[in-house]
Design brief:
alpha+beta; 3 helices
Length: 123
């Protein structure tokens, strides 16, 4: 599997900021395997339908109102089908991160997410 990891991370982070539901749905289908799972400390979301609901809820809660945006931290590392990176939620006008997540992603043979394990990191 040869994918551009920086582009992958940019698309991953970008889907959380995507205002168009159809584009968001299509990007989720491109990023995650059909049975892909996101594991949070308090929840689990499996399959495109649950992932779409999860991403949409985060978008509506944090991004849609124009207060915050998600950005990559620029610390991507990858090997053997695994990708590790952090993402920040920052005020739209700039400023310090109000939330940081550490992502550990396992990709399938086609470069889609099998498992996405997310940890909230103290800011």
């Amino acid at each position: 599997m040869a994918i551009d990891i920086e582009k992958f991370v940019a698309r991953y982070v970008g889907v959380w900021n995507e205002p168009d539901p159809d584009t968001r749905r299509a990007t989720i289908a491109e990023l995650w395997a059909p049975d892909g799972t996101e594991l949070l400390e308090t929840a689990e979301h499996t399959g495109h339908r649950e992932l779409e609901a999860r991403v949409t809820e985060a978008y509506e809660r944090f991004v849609a109102g124009g207060e915050y945006v998600f950005v990559p931290a620029g610390d991507t590392a990858a090997h053997h089908g695994f990708v590790a990176f952090r993402t920040h939620m920052v005020p739209v006008g700039g400023g310090a991160a109000v939330w940081t997540g550490a992502m550990f992603v396992e990709l399938d043979a086609e470069g889609r997410i099998r498992r996405d394990v997310q940890f909230a990191v103290p800011v």
